[in-house]
Amino acid sequence: MKNSIILLCLILLVSCKETSKEAQVPQHQDATEQKTISAEPAKKKPLSPHTSAMAMVGDAHIHFDYSSPGVRNRIVFGGLLPYDAVWQAGAHMATWMETNKDLTIDGKVLKAGKYGFFVIPNQKEWTIIFNTNWNQHGKDEYDKKDDVLRFKVIPKISEEIQEHLEYKITKVTDTSGAISLSWEKAIVGFPFDVK
């Protein structure tokens, strides 16, 4: 009889522990809790967001496609980007420009098409380059022999810092416009005419 009582007490004790464990495990969660648990962490904003600049000048549709790096408290020209070296004029993939009409730039004709856009920065003047190899990572495959147009421009220096690289295409008349890029304190631009 004594053994039976002890056995019964043990069964009750084990049974109480199992019930206690079950009580600790939630039987269901509301929809809000489930979403919180399964939600992915918020994605970081890219440091060099992909963007574009487009404009119509007369019948010409001009489109620049680039990734826009930030200054982030760095010395860019003459620091991060050495002077007198080819730069893809953006981050990651080479910047490209497309036009559906022939353009006259620096007295030369740039045929309708898609081009890699490169620059060689310098303190006194920049070299602007349009190259047939528009689809490349950075300047990894850049080759001067693929250049179709090269010319020099004098940069302007701004008092204000342009945090992210920005391209602008400005319509001046129905047959002319200007292209500019600005980053850090440098502003570089040049005019064009639609043929």
UniProtKB/TrEMBL annotation:
Biased composition annotated in UniProt, kind: Polar residues: 26-37
PROSITE patterns reported in the protein's UniProt record: PROKAR_LIPOPROTEIN (PS51257)
InterPro entries: DUF2911 (IPR021314)
Renumbered residue ranges of the record's region Disordered: 23-50
Superkingdom of this protein's organism: Bacteria
Descriptive protein name: DUF2911 domain-containing protein
